[in-house]
Amino acid sequence: MNLTQIALLLFVFIACSVNEELEMQDEILWHNYGVLHIYARSDSSLYYMADGRK
To answer: Partners of 27 in the beta sheet?
Structure first.
């Protein structure tokens, strides 16, 4: 493998890892039938969002 291929491979790995970190956000979604879905990065975020007294 030459230096250009290694640099390109390293760039791809870094870009993929950064995208995964940005992808996860705290959010509350409701299904069409009113079912609540809570997505949180941590337990404390989950409890804060589920409490409803923000």
So the answer is: 39
The single-letter code of the amino acid at 30 is W
d(CA 49, CA 9): 39
Query: What is the C-alpha separation between 9 and 6, in angstroms, rounded?
Result: 5
Query: What DSSP string describes 4-51?
Result: HHHHHHHHHHHHHHHHHHHH---EEEE-TTS-EEEE-SSHHHHHHHHH
- Contact status, residue 46 vs residue 38, Cβ threshold 8 Å: yes
At 16-41, the pLDDT tens digits run 765 444 556 788 888 888 888 888 88
The residue behind tokens 């030459």 is 2
Q: Which residues lie across from 30 on neighbouring strands?
A: 36
